[in-house]
Design a protein that fits this description.
12 strands, globular, eight-stranded antiparallel sheet, alpha+beta
Length: 390
Amino acid sequence: MKINLSFLSLSLFSSFPENCILLARIISMSDTCGNCCSMYNDGACPKGMASFLCKPLKWIGKPLCSTLCFLSRPVVTTLNHFFPSIVKKHSHIGCFVGVGLLGLACYTLYRHLFTSPGFNPPTPGDLYLAHGCRKRFELACDMEQDPYVFDVSNEAWSGILSENWETIRDELQAYLDQHDGKLAPFGHTHRMSSKSCWRVLSLRLWGVTSPDASNHFGKTMDIVREAFSASDDEARAVGVTFSQLEPNSDIAPHYGDTNGNYRAHLGLIVPASLPDAGMEIGTEQQGWGEGKLFAFNDAHFHKAWNHCSGRRFILIVDVMRRKFMDRRKHLCRYVMASFLLQRVANFKYFGFVKATKWMEFYAHSLFYCCLYLPINFGIGNGFVHWFMKS
C-alpha cells in the first residue's frame, strides 16, 4: 500500500479548528457532549459513547467523551481515508484509539515528571534494569547477592536440561541441516568482531514465545516445560535461545540488561574450551563443554570468544530469580523494549530514535506500552518475533 503523506499531513491539521472547539468544551465543562457526538457521526465518536460515559458519570463523562473525540479525530480521519468500510462498520474504533492515545500520553507525562533518562544505582541486591545506564550497576553491586557466576547445581531445572542436552543438540542439528548450517544474525552488530559472527534463534524472548517454536523444536520446548513444571517455576523460563558463534570471532565486552535472571549456557556443539573458546564475566572465566551448564549474572561486564576453526552452538536459557518473580512481567517488558529500540535504531534512517537521551527515553516508553499485550496475554507474539528477525 502506498501511503499518501500529503493527505496524512492534511488530515492532522484539517481537523484543528474542530479540535480547538472540543478542547474549549473540555475546559469549560460545557453540556455539549450530545452535539459533539452528532458532529462526529463519521465514526470518530459514536453516539453510543455518550450514553456509555456521559449519562452514568454526569460531570466526568462529558469532558472525557470530548477528550476522546479530540484525540481520535485526526487518527480516524486518516483511517477513514484508507479503510472507509471498516471505519463505517466499526465506528467505535475511534474511541478505542483515543483511549490508547490518552493512556500513552498520561504514561509519557508521568515518566517525564517523575523519572529521567539517568539512573540512580539500585539498593544492593535489588532489581536492576539497565536501559541507558548499564555501567552504574557496578557502583551498587553486592557481590554476595549478585556474583559473577551463580551456583545453580541445586536447581532442579539445571539437572533436567543437562541430562537432555543430546536431544536438544540433535533437534538443533536437524534444523541446521535444513538452513545451511547457520542461524539468523544477531541485531546488535556493534558488539561483533566481524559482521554476523554472532547468530541466534529465539524460541522465547523475554516472555514472548514464538508461534513457530514447537514446529522445529517440539522436543526442546517439552524439555524446557518439564524442567520448569513445578507450579511455582512454570513462568520462570522467560528466554530460550540458540546461540551460534562463528570461528575466529569475538563478542565485545558489554553489560547485560538486568540482574533479575540467571543466564544459563548449555553447551551443545563446542569445538574447544578455555583458553581457545569461552567467556569472561568480571574477573572470572568460564569455558563451554558439551552437556555442561553454567549460569552467570548478565548485568556484569562480560565478553565471549571462539578462536577455533569450528562453530560453537549453545542453548541460552534465561531463568527468573525467585526473589524477583513478582516483577517478572515488568522486567520482561522493560528489557524487551530495549531490544526493540535497538532493532529500530539499526534500520536505515531510524537512528534518530537514539539521537538524544530524551528521544531514547520516550521511544523506550512507547515500546514498553506496546508490549503489554504480547507479554501479558500472548497477543501479537508472532509479529514481535518477525520484527526482531526482519
